[in-house]
Design a protein that fits this description.
The complex is a heterodimer of chains A (about 425) and B (about 350). Chain A has 2 domains: about 210 residues, Periplasmic binding protein-like II (D-Maltodextrin-Binding Protein, domain 2, 3-Layer(aba) Sandwich); about 200 residues, Periplasmic binding protein-like II (D-Maltodextrin-Binding Protein, domain 2). Chain A is about 45% helix and about 15% strand. Chain A has 17 helices and 15 strands. Chain A has a 5-stranded mixed β-sheet with strand order 2-1-3-14-7. In chain A, strands 9-12-8-13 form a 4-stranded mixed β-sheet. A 3-stranded mixed β-sheet of chain A has the order 10-11-15. In chain A, β10 and β11 form a beta hairpin. Chain A is globular. Chain B has about 350 residues and is mainly alpha-helical. Chain B folds into 3 domains: about 60 residues, no CATH class; about 25 residues, no CATH class; about 240 residues, MetI-like fold (Orthogonal Bundle), CATH 1.10.3720.10. Chain B is built from 14 helices and 2 strands; from the N terminus they run αααββααααααααααα. Chain B is flat and about 90 Å long. Helices cover about 70% and strands about 5% of the residues of chain B. In chain B, α7 crosses α9. Classes of the chains: A alpha/beta (about 425), B mainly alpha (about 350). The interface between A and B is large, with 54 and 43 residues. β4 of chain A pairs parallel with β1 of chain B.
Chain lengths: ~425, ~350
């Protein structure tokens, strides 16, 4: 089996090398190959919301097919929550996995470590790698190789209610957590509403940790630094916001849903959340439209303002036969092009991952996208290791303990560090 | 599968019986000669059971002595390049046998919170089963006599059973919502402070137990009602003539008459509640901070979040099985002591 694959591989290498050479000359269509000659049946698992986002992706596929009429894209919508396990199961069984997958950023190192993904180094997809923002791009790297290209990116930002800010006499969005505290006090005094809601989840506390210059692990030094003094200070800032009443005391169950309901019903002025909720807020009848929504970078701690990067990447399943590779590369190249990204930004309000996409007029004039521009530019990379997904379970427990049960931040973070050592990154050392 | 049943007759030809050797054949041999048709009939069941139950069980026990995870299941990991090359390297951490390490890790509390989860599981199981049984019995007694609208009551009381567990779990979870839920709205209406249900493990577990009581009472009620209807009415009539009070009749006739049904449903209820995954998983989600996790939900999270840990999952599975096995054995012994044929 591997021998025949190698045979095909040699042929395909030659074809691809020619294609890459042709593409390198800045000609949009490879002159040697007629796009209509490219024939393949490709399956794509899309994990976006099928009702809100799916139609836009289908439109893009139709556009792709005007250039490549003989590449049939078999679009399958797979619920985001199931896709990771479904893909792993299918890939391990070597049957039923899609050729192309929209993978969340943290999944890529995990899939790559298991050998489930094509290494894309040397393909046309990475010819203009420098056009992608480095932080979203970094999530595709594993073991020095590149396994995907970014589709959309996101990060956390401070979303606020402009009307409540005006009522409370606040001129501009707070820049630090201390500003947030004073703003919340003013809002409470003048409007009787609550200032801030912090979702008690590990991911949503990362801005507090990054704000003090902390991180979860040091991947280069193979060290667990989640219980560092910086992180303790950061969590204490969040605890203080809740204790002082600047932030609502969140419920332990369904904190996220509660946060969104309170924000949409204008009962809380500020939340920390990402661009994926912009459409939700826009369509909420109680909120007063998109004009009422203010977006600012997350407030800074004592060192800097930092929010974790999120988003999705396109990856190719390594079980796909090599003769489909050329078509798959063309498809992903089309989907991740600046024009396609601008189209998606227009339609869905999701954030492009290419610098050049932000130069396109429709993106430039989009107020939401441009408001998120600085957020993306400063987003911090998460530790891109296969175990990355397992960091958040213990961190979620820590968030509940510190914000809701009022446990000591240091004790709680020490327990997280011990858990990381025993269960997640066993070959690391405690700092 | 029919071939399996077809082979035995040919091997035991009547000839072998006529040339009986001087030595007495073994017990197994005689049993085979006499009852080969019974063995043949049992064979398909044995095959199906081995495939469906015995093999997975043995495999599970085997895995619990390894360190197999999703990441180390392959002996070599191959990375295919889109440009056509493929590089394979031996997996430096390929899985291997680790003896009892998994059990030591789990039982010593190094990995997960086994003892905490076990404690919560016991509170959860005992709490649920006690209320299931007593409420179910009370309702069954009430419905076991002629009264107006009995049919309607029975249907209404069985309703929770007919609703899929996850639907009820979501409904109850929403009723306990701290900001928008029904219970806190009622509490504020009568002038009490709203309760932060999920901030403390005791109230959080209470929400799950209440949900599960609601879900589990109908089964007990129906089973006990069925049991009551097998008790001959003559006994009640005789007791009444002898001047027994209703309470005496309940204690001396109904309860003994229900014993065999009760013992069975309590055993079933205990095993089901012990392993009741959806209610905890959906209603409390282990909140606050994993403190209301029971064994099955805790081990699910430990083994299937992120890179799936097959060996750890098997270890938990074997431990849970052992606990329930020990319980069942003691329970049966207790029943036998009381003279029940079971």
């Amino acid at each position: 089996m591997r021998r025949t694959a190698r045979g095909i591989a040699v042929v395909a290498t030659a074809v691809l090398a020619l294609a890459a050479a042709a593409c390198g000359k800045d000609t949009p269509e490879a002159p040697k190959n007629n796009p209509a000659d490219l024939k393949a049946d490709l399956t794509w698992w899309d994990t976006s919301d099928p009702a809100n986002e799916g139609p836009a992706f289908k439109e893009l596929i139709a556009k792709f097919n005007t250039t490549y009429p003989n590449v049939k894209i078999n679009y399958q919508s797979v619920p985001f929550g199931e896709a990771q396990n479904k893909f792993k199961t299918a890939a391990a069984a070597k049957s039923g996995a899609p050729d192309i997958l929209r993978a969340e950023v943290a999944w890529v190192p995990e899939f790559a470590s298991l050998g489930y993904l094509y290494n894309l180094d040397g393909s046309a997809l990475l010819a203009d790698e420098s056009d992608f923002f480095p932080t979203p791009m970094s999530s595709n790297k594993f073991d020095g190789k590149t396994f995907g290209v970014p589709q959309v990116t996101d990060s956390l930002a401070l979303l606020y209610n402009k009307k409540i800010f005006t009522d409370a006499g606040i001129a501009e969005a707070p820049k630090t957590w201390a500003d947030v505290k004073t703003a919340a006090a003013a809002i409470k005094a003048k409007t009787g509403k609550d200032g801030l809601f912090i979702n008690p989840g590990g991911y949503f506390l990362l801005p507090f940790i990054y704000g003090e210059g902390g991180d979860l692990v040091d991947t280069a030094g193979k060290k667990i630094v989640v219980n560092s003094a910086e992180n303790v200070a950061g969590i204490k800032v969040a605890q203080d916001l809740v204790k002082s009443g600047a932030a609502v005391k969140p419920p332990a169950a369904d904190g996220y849903g509660t946060m969104m309901t309170l924000f949409k019903e204008q009962k809380v002025a500020m939340i920390i959340n990402g661009p994926w909720e912009v459409n939700n807020v826009r369509s909420a009848t109680t909120f007063g439209g998109i004009e009422n929504l203010g977006i600012a970078p997350v407030p800074a701690g004592s060192k800097k303002a930092g929010a974790p990067v999120g988003g999705h990447n396109y990856v190719l399943y390594s079980g796909m036969s090599q003769d489909k590779a050329a078509a798959a590369v063309e498809f992903v190249k089309f989907m991740s092009s600046a024009e396609s990204q601008a189209f998606l930004a227009d339609k869905l309000g999701v954030l492009p991952t290419r610098k050049s996409a932000y130069e396109i007029a429709s993106v430039k004039s989009n107020p939401i996208i441009s408001a998120f521009g600085p957020v993306i530019a400063t987003a911090s990379a998460r530790p891109w290791i296969p175990e990355g997904g397992q960091f958040f379970g213990p961190l979620d427990a820590m968030a509940t303990e510190t914000l809701i049960q009022g446990k000591d931040a240091k004790t709680s973070l020490d327990a997280v560090a011990q858990k990381y050592l025993n269960e997640v990154v066993k070959n690391y050392t405690l700092s | 599968m029919s071939t399996v049943t077809a082979t035995p007759p040919t091997t035991t030809s009547p000839a072998s019986r006529s040339h009986r050797p001087a030595k007495r054949p073994s017990w197994l041999r005689r049993s085979w000669d006499r009852h080969w048709y019974a063995w043949a009939m049992v064979a398909p069941v044995v095959v199906v059971l081995s495939v469906l139950i015995i093999y997975p069980l043995v495999r599970g026990v085997f895995l619990s002595f390894t360190n197999l995870t999703e990441a180390n299941q392959l002996a070599e990991i191959c990375t295919k390049s889109i440009t056509g090359s493929e590089s394979c390297k031996a997996n430096p951490e390929a899985w291997h046998m680790v003896g009892f390490d998994n059990y030591v890790d789990v039982l010593s509390g190094k990995v997960g919170q086994f003892w905490q989860w076990l404690g919560v599981t016991l509170i959860w199981t005992i709490g649920c089963v006690v209320f299931h049984y007593t409420i179910g019995l009370g309702l069954a007694v009430m419905l076991n006599r002629p009264m107006w609208g009995r049919g309607v009551y029975r249907v209404l009381l069985i309703l929770p059973w007919a609703v899929p567990a996850f639907v009820s779990a979501f409904a109850w979870k929403f009723m306990f919502n701290e900001k928008f839920g029904l219970f806190n709205a009622l509490l504020t209406k009568v002038g009490l402070d709203p309760v932060e249900w999920f901030s403390d493990w005791k109230t959080s577990l209470l929400t799950a137990i209440l949900t599960n009581i609601w879900l589990g009472v109908p089964f007990m009620m129906v089973a006990l009602l069925g049991g009551m209807q097998t008790i001959p009415t003559e006994q009640y009539e005789a007791a009444e003539i002898d001047g027994a009070s209703p309470w005496q009749r309940f204690v001396s006739i109904t309860l003994p008459g229900l014993r065999s049904v009760s013992m069975t449903v309590i055993l079933l209820g205990t095993i089901w509640t012990f392993n009741m995954f959806p209610v905890i998983f959906l209603v409390t989600q282990g909140q606050p901070a994993g403190q209301t996790e029971i064994l099955v939900t805790g081990s699910f999270r430990a083994a299937f979040e992120g890179i799936r840990n097959y060996s750890l999952a098997s270890t938990y599975g074997v431990l849970i099985l052992s606990i329930l096995l020990v319980f069942s054995v003691f329970y049966r012994r207790m029943l036998r002591k009381q003279g029940e044929v079971w």
